[in-house]
Design brief:
This is Cytochrome P450. Helix content is 52%, strand content 8%. By secondary structure, it is of the alpha+beta class. α9 runs antiparallel to α11 and α12 crosses α15. The model is unreliable at 149-153 (pLDDT under 50). Bound molecules: protoporphyrin IX containing FE. The site of protoporphyrin IX containing FE has 23 residues, from α15, α16 and α20.
């Protein structure tokens, strides 16, 4: 790990953009100049088996192309470490980007498993959740108001400040996803801890020891999910996971998902369902705080919230990076990509491509082309929860600001150190008077 760090630092000094993002916290906090540097040098950068793009057109083409598949699991570990590592894994040591996670499978397995969950994840089902999302949001806001009124509370973020992440942005998605998965209320905090560990594994920058550490925590979560699935099978509820289990069990024996496949579907929905949405809500509050005039526009016209959410997804994408590997020799924008080449796709960079977004660094809640962003990816792996995430963010922001229009970020917001996911660990705010 130390050697990899040193190599990264050397490469960063030589101007390697990936190494910069991995080793330089400043570049990670403000990756935009790295992205534009990559984009200005060409549609696809690099040579050998590893390339990078920050171009919207190239990203979209690759994500939609059947000449590309998902990168092999744990390929970021060099050989022989990779083989040794795989040999030490049990069926419980599976991360969110290892098979059989949907994120790590190509057709036909991907199609088979995605269909199983997608048929229950319909627009109608998401729309039915709205009343529940509103009620949960209001209850969380009541809790926030309660905190604000308490005297003598330990306030690490300064007098009068509450951590919006801890008490709001993280709580709403966990509550919503827990309900979708039929997780009982008393296990919510456990679920939150699982998600945090799983999110760390999304980062290729983890060292071997750190990776094993998170893997151990994740192993407990796998066991608990197996127990939960067994409970739901015995006592099904009206939640999404019970429906998925029921339709899986009704399939002919040779088409049924294995126990590990079913567990991974549930865990992916869980992790993907809140580790990203928490960031969307926090990023939105932070950006609106920096742009009071944009906040004022939304407060004056509530119908702007939908587009404001798209603009946050574009401007401050909660998922910054993904990757694809060429499954055959191919060409992208005139650049030859041999089979086996992995292209790192800078989604956050594609979302600031001036070829699609005029004056891309400007934050504009009324931007007409905001929805062209790739924050939810494209193609076979397009985010299953996109509509749910949009609903949660819209309700969260509308309710938060209509109750506390003068809410201000105060003190020092703390960014998460993750590279793939972009968001805040702590976002101290003063709520201001209640409207
Ligand atoms: C996949 C982003 C919320 C479930 C993805 C991918 C992205 C993404 C970029 C595809 C990665 C790739 O192509 O390599 C986001 C963002 C969210 C969000 C930015 C919130 C702001 C959600 C929610 C759920 C969810 C709320 C579920 C309730 C999934 C699943 C996949 C996925 C299951 C895997 C799909 C597949 O591989 O076929 N998400 N997501 N996501 N997302 Fe989301």
């Amino acid at each position: 790990h130390g050697i990899i760090r040193a190599l990264n630092a050397r490469e960063a000094r030589r101007g390697n953009p990936i190494a910069r993002l991995m080793s330089d916290p400043t570049a990670r906090a403000e990756p935009w100049s790295t992205y534009s540097g990559v984009r200005e040098q060409g549609p696809v950068l690099g040579e050998g088996s590893f390339r990078v793009t920050a171009s919207h057109a190239v990203a979209a083409e690759i994500l939609r192309s059947d000449a590309f598949g998902v990168p092999a699991a744990n390929a970021h570990f060099p050989e022989p470490l990779h083989s040794i590592f795989l040999a030490t894994l049990s069926e419980y040591d599976v991360g969110p980007v290892d098979p059989p996670s949907l994120l790590a499978l190509d057709a036909p397995d991907h199609t088979r498993l995605r269909r199983l969950v997608a048929r229950h994840f319909t627009a109608r089902r998401v729309a039915q959740l709205e009343a529940d999302v509103v009620a949960t949001t209001k209850a969380l806001l009541d809790g926030l108001d309660g905190l604000d009124g308490l005297d003598g509370l330990d306030r690490p973020h300064g007098d009068g400040a509450v951590d919006l992440v801890e008490h709001f942005s993280a709580r709403l998605p966990v509550a919503v996803i827990s309900r979708l998965l039929g997780v009982p209320d008393h296990r919510r905090d456990e679920v939150l801890a699982w998600g945090n560990e799983g999110a760390k594994q999304l980062d290729g920058g983890l060292g071997y020891r750190e990776f094993l550490g998170t893997t151990r925590a994740v192993t407990d979560m796998h066991r608990a999910m197996d127990e939960h699935i067994a409970d739901l099978r015995a006592h099904p509820g009206d939640d999404l996971l019970s429906s998925v289990i029921r339709s899986a069990d009704a399939l002919p024996a040779d088409e049924q998902p294995t126990a590990v496949e079913l567990r991974m579907i549930a865990l992916l929905v869980l992790g993907a369902g809140f580790e990203t949405t928490v960031n969307l809500i926090s990023n939105a509050v932070a950006r609106l705080d920096e742009h009071p005039e944009e906040k004022a526009r939304c407060l004056a016209d509530e119908s702007l919230w939908d587009n404001a959410v798209e603009e946050v997804l574009r401007h401050d994408s909660p998922v910054q990076l993904t990757g694809r590997t060429a499954v055959r020799d191919t060409t992208v924008e005139g650049v030859a990509i041999p089979a086996g080449t992995t292209v790192l796709i800078m989604l956050g960079g594609a979302n600031r491509d001036p070829a699609v977004f005029a004056d891309p660094d400007r934050f504009d809640v009324g931007r007409a082309e905001a929805g062209e962003h790739l924050a939810f990816s494209l193609g076979a792996h397009f985010c299953l929860g996109a509509q749910l995430a949009r609903l949660e963010a819209r309700v969260a922001l509308r309710e938060l600001y209509s109750r506390h229009p003068d809410l201000r970020v105060v003190g020092t917001p703390v960014r998460k150190q993750t590279q793939v996911l972009r968001g805040y660990e702590h976002l101290p705010v003063e709520l201001g008077p209640r409207a």
